[in-house]
Amino acid sequence: MVKLTKKTREQYTKLILDTLDAGDKEKFRDTFLDLHPSDQLDIFVKLDGDARSRGYSYLTPGEFAEIFGGLDISDQKLFFLELDEDYSIRMFNQMFTDDVVNFLTEINSERAEDILLQMDKEKAEKIKALLSYAPKTAGAIMTKELISISSTDTAADVLEMLRKEAPSAESIYYLYVVDCEGILVGVVSLRDLIIAAPDEVIKDIMTTRTVSVPEDMDQEDVGRMIKKYDFLAAPVVSKDNHLLGIVTFDDVMDILEEEVTEDFGEISATKGATDLTLSPFTAAKKRAPWIIILMLFGLVTGGVIRQFEETLEAVVVLAAFIPMIMGSAGNIGTQSLAVAVRGLALETIEDGGFWKMIRREFSTGILIGIICMALISVMITIIFGNWMVALIVGVSILCTFGISAVIGSTIPLIINKLKLDPAIASGPFITTVNDIVGLLIYFSIATSLMAYL
User: Fold this and answer.
1) In b/e form, how buried is each residue of 171-198, taking b as 16+ CB within 10 angstroms?
2) Total domains present in the chain
3) What percent of the chain has pLDDT over 90?
4) Counting Cβ atoms within 10 Å, is residue 440 exposed (0-12), middle (13-18) or buried (19+)?
5) Looking at residues 85-103, what average pLDDT do you find?
6) In the sheet that 233-237 helps form, which strands lie side by side, from edge to edge?
7) How confident is the model at residue 384 (pLDDT cuts 50, 70, 90)?
């Protein structure tokens, strides 16, 4: 199997296009099928409609199934419309159940039902079972294509069975041992199976210390568990420990990417609008509500400044430092927000660690504030020749940094305590809050020291 570099991928793409243009089916198949599946996918998405049509006719539904399963949903929808109906049904029959479920959940429900009616009955029943689970749970993302064995089988029996059944399984690195009622009782790794004596019984090879996930576990928790134990796959079980399916490492990679994208969207107030394939209108529609809310929230900032008009009129030079105070408050708050959200996501914030986190961020903010206070005070004294203004700005920076750090870390921790996603404490929201806090501190200190200006 050939794996391509960027340069060779371009060469292979041209070669495959040439074979398609020439109608050379055999050369196309020899060249294309010799590539790694990921490279096949990369090349296929670059073909135009006519080239893809010839590609469909040169590939069997089973061969195209692996390519289709790896496509983004937008490409899947496009390619599906190009496929002959019979071809697509045979392709779905040979795809892994979780990949079919991913596609069917993204299309019209009536069309999905029509596809299921035309598929093999046994396959369709497995897919319907997955579709019955709540979205983003272990049951919804698991696959039914796994290898289960009996504890009374011998190593030789299992190896012989693998030769027949492995091609249809998504993963064979772990073999799950079940009793006569389908209850999970153990697991055998492929490595242990291969090195075992042919006549050795599975119950003597397997480990009974199985780590499984309940069918209703959130997909993000499933991902964390597989990451924690360095699994290639994890068994999914019912409440009475019946083996239902497996979640594989490649699915977890997709899940974690999806969750990171979602959290990034929350924390940057761009939820649902991070996809570059969205039209400007759709992206604007998704991003506008947060911007409008923050814009209205920004009116509070204007109100704070208006309340201290007399101070500004008396000492106009104070206005020069408003952007710096606001920017610094927002920056330190966003840093603390990122630390808190990351800690919650990785579960590195221990139970009872709320106050420890607050103390740590407050101390960090104060230490940074001392450094910045010393620096800015010296600069203002030299540039403006007014040590009292330097003192006001410096002390304001110090207080603002300490309080803003606490705000940035506290809000996501409180939201997490309320069982909500801490990422909704978006950066722009924290920045706006800290802008207001920074201005209140700045003008309060300036007003109290007006007599010395």
Assistant:
1) bbebbbbbeeeeebbbbbebebbeebee
2) 3
3) 41
4) middle
5) 93
6) 213-214, 233-237, 243-248
7) confident
Pairing mode of beta strands 213-214, 184-189: unpaired
Mean pLDDT taken over the chain = 85
Residues 333, 410 within the same domain: yes
Q: What is the CATH classification number for the domain harbouring 382?
A: 1.10.357.20
Residues 324 and 426 grouped into a single domain: yes
Cα 330-437-301 angle, rounded to 5 deg: 85
In a domain, 393, yes or no: yes
pLDDT in tens, 338-374: 788 777 766 667 656 778 888 888 999 999 999 999 9
Contact by Cβ (8 Å): 16, 52:
no
Determine, yes or no, domain membership for 274.
Answer: no
Q: In what order do the strands lie in the sheet with 148-149?
A: 148-149, 174-178, 184-189
Tokens representing residue 78 in the block: 């496009």
Domain that holds residue 194: 148-264
Would you give the distance in Å from CA 66 to the centre of its chain? 23
- With respect to residue 378, please indicate whether it lies within any of the assigned structural domains: yes
Same domain, 133 and 10: yes
Same-domain check for residues 326 and 255: no
Query: What is this structure's pTM?
Result: 0.64
Summarised one tens digit per residue, pLDDT across range 212-259 is: 999 999 988 898 888 888 888 899 999 999 999 999 888 888 777 776
Which CATH number belongs to the domain containing residue 251 in this structure? Answer: 3.10.580.10
128's tokens: 């319907």
Residue 1 resides in a domain: no
Q: What is the mean pLDDT of residues 411-437?
A: 74
